[in-house]
Amino acid sequence: TNDGDRPPLIVMPHGGPETSDHLKWDTWAQFFASRGYQVLQPNFRGSSGQGRSFAEAGYRQWGGLMQDDVTAAVQHLIDQGLADPDRICIVGASYGGYAALMGAVRRPDLYKAAIAICGVADLPEMLAWERREDDTPDRQVYNFWVKRIGDPETMGPQLVAASPSRRATEITCPVLLVHGVDDPIVPVIESRRMNEALRQAGKAVELIEVEDAGHADWPAEKEQELLERYIVLLKQAFA
Question: Cα 73 to chain center, whole Å?
């Protein structure tokens, strides 16, 4: 191809989601850039660092306006002529993994592959897990997430619609799922559910379970091995 001036684009929404990306060292971003890819790190609504109202604008918008912001950032690069619309993948961890899966659900025309690391796949199940695990007074942790994700008692259909595992039939691109078996933040059952849903839907999916690993900060050699595996998938997607 003659698109040397427009390298393939990796869209990389951050985790949290109430954190933010800055112009600082990011191992994954640098790794992908060193392999010849552009990297987009959007600070969608719900991110921190832009004031309380910007963070709260993401409340109960998982899969909704927060996802629209990621898509809008990609569209802006396409409109500016900076990104080739036929060579875009989405990669993320934690909430970013959720956003990668939801991007594949909502915009099958846009993403050629999705890689979700320790991602959330089923919002009602995730909230039920948070409720079971929460031993704080007055269920402070569970209520923290109800405020940000939604209340299963009043928002059931919306939470189901915002769950990638419930919409696996809509995904068309290959999906790579990676999860630490001992993840205490997002349980590995989330990626297992997504894997099963995609398999039942006849989709291209692979699940890599990382033994003796938590939610992040995995050994450098394991990270390197996984990053090289991501490149294999990206090369196939962009071929």
Answer: 15
pTM: 0.96
pLDDT of residue 1: 41
Residue 57 corresponds to which amino acid?
A
Half-sphere exposure of 138 (CA within 13 A, CB side): 3
- Spatial distance between the Cα atoms of 211 and 148, rounded to a whole number of angstroms: 30
Torsion on CA atoms 122, 146, 92, 40, rounded to nearest 10: 130
**What's residue 4's pLDDT?**
57
Interatomic CA distance for residues 47 and 51, integer angstroms: 9
Work out the burial of residue 115: count CB atoms within 10 Å of its CB; fewer than 13 is exposed, 13-18 middle, 19 or more buried: buried
For the cut 70, the answer to whether the pLDDT of residue 97 exceeds it is: yes
Report the largest interatomic distance among the alpha carbons of the chain, rounded to a whole angstrom: 60
Q: Are 84 and 8 in contact (CB under 8 A)?
A: yes
User: Two tokens at 108?
Assistant: 């099958």
Q: CA–CA separation, 113 vs 122, rounded Å?
A: 20
- Cβ burial of 189 (10 Å; 0-12, 13-18, 19+) is middle
How far apart, in whole angstroms, are the C-alpha atoms of residue 126 and residue 189? 9
Cα–Cα distance for residue pair 13/48, rounded to 1 Å: 13
Nearest alpha carbon to residue 28 among 16, 45, 14 = 14
How far is the first Cα of the chain from the last one, in angstroms, to the nearest whole number?
10
> Which residues are catalytic, by number?
94, 183, 215
Tokens of 144: 């923290």
